[in-house]
């Protein structure tokens, strides 16, 4: 049961990555000033959030394995 908070944190991090990705794709599809001003920034934030999510997943697998 000790890994339940970690699982919730992993799930939230995956949802954050998904939300950032969908916002970036939506902005890219529409184009315009939002995409010009925020497109690269959103994709950078996605990469950072994705790295954190992968780290948390690996930590979860490690904790769960023991």
Automatic annotation (TrEMBL):
InterPro entries: Hypoxia_induced_domain
Transmembrane regions: 6-26, 47-65
Occurrences of domain HIG1 (ranges): 1-66
Pfam families: HIG_1_N
Superkingdom classification of source: Bacteria
Keywords for the protein's UniProt record, in alphabetical order: Membrane, Transmembrane, Transmembrane helix
Protein's name according to its UniProt entry: HIG1 domain-containing protein
Native organism: Paracoccus contaminans
